[in-house]
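Researcher: Can you fold this with flavin-adenine dinucleotide in place?
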Amino acid sequence: MTNLNSQVAIVGAGPSGLAAAAHLRSANVDLRVFGKVMEFWERHMPAGMLLRSYWEACHISDPNGDLTLDRYERARGVQLPRPVRRDDFINYGQWFQREAVPDVDGRRVTRIEAASKCFRVMLEDGESVWAQRVVIATGVGSFAWRPRQFNAVPRTLASHSSDHCDLGRFAGLRVVVVGGGQSALESAALLHESGAAVEVIVRAPGVHWLRYGTRLHTWLHNQANPLRWILYPPSNSNIGPPGVNWIVDTPDLFRRLPFAVHSRIKRRAIRPAGSGWLPPRMNGVRITTGRVIMSASPVGQQVRLRLDDGTERCVDHIFLATGYHFDISRCTFLAPNLVRSLRLIDGYPELTAGFEASLPGLHFLGAFAVGTFGPLMSHVAGTKYAASALTRCILEQPANSRSRVASHEWDGLAQTPDG
Ligand SMILES: Cc1cc2nc3c(=O)[nH]c(=O)nc-3n(C[C@H](O)[C@H](O)[C@H](O)COP(=O)(O)OP(=O)(O)OC[C@H]3O[C@@H](n4cnc5c(N)ncnc54)[C@H](O)[C@@H]3O)c2cc1C
């Protein structure tokens, strides 16, 4: 019989993991949380960045709705600027953690294996803990996507946007930013403001600017405007245009729609776009649209790019703001046989209403849940739905009632724990 160290182990202490921990803890579930608090935001997002989401969509969920950004403002006795700044959001997340889950264990999880109807969670220092359930909330960090045209260029010359938190190191350099979404456009603005000479190369025929921040949008969003309640869902998650945004904001509805509809909604909801407050900051940034980069090769300390119109660029650095491609097999800390045992939808684990994968006891939150519950899940606004549904599921199947676990899903997966 295995000694369980906890009923639930949560891997990842970003907004999803912290919200889940806050909800479960308040329901007296015995749990442990692993990972550095808000690490992705601190180490992989650029200093100076502003959140695209509205203020109301940036609250990390706790069961009583007490630990909001408003409450954080009051606790600090300051009024924070809107849009929310990355640094303020990190400080808010760390405050949320101290209030709701003060005992987060900062160690990284290196491997998760199935072990005699529970899970073995191995930590970076070699220690293992056993948990009846594991909740994976490790975000998109492992899924940064580098297009293959850049395979021949070393990372010192062509890096992914998530490789950086300080864009000041590019001052005085010529930088090409690849991509046409918020991350590309905001990085271009930040690079330009840091003193780099920047060109953005976008494959699409034009850049799509969101009206967020413009006078029309501000008017439409005014709480006193009756149109606001028709066009925008109450969570103000701001994902997708009116109509699509209501579906995205109702994950339970999204889950019940056919897969073909999922793909269309996802494409429409998360198409590349830049916030309306960015263009004034981009004066002096060259934006080239409708062009594909055919090849990239290092030339000494520089990179030469060939575009599909036959033109070339020779620059000091390529900044790949090319987003993230989800593929659970790239999650190296999950034992390969465990990954192989999961039913997948388009590379994402297929999840139940309680965010449980086809292997009982294994739950996925955040970006991992987008395949089942839609794009809201990869946003902070999704933490409320996800943490509540997860908690309900775990409370409905309390500890030691996992007889259903003695099922074929575990056959051949379990290894005898050695600790
Ligand atoms: C440039 C950019 C801008 C964004 N802007 C917004 C926005 O305006 N609004 C919004 O709602 N969302 C935004 N997002 C999405 C944002 O990432 C999510 O909202 C949010 O971070 C999701 O929280 P999470 O906890 O699921 O993931 P993360 O915040 O990524 O947290 C996961 C944590 O798990 C940790 N981890 C990973 N592997 C391990 C391991 N093996 N062991 C222990 N810990 C591990 C990571 O270090 C990380 O800290 C943005 C994303 C990007 C890339």
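Model: Folded with flavin-adenine dinucleotide in place. The first helix runs from residue 15 to 26.
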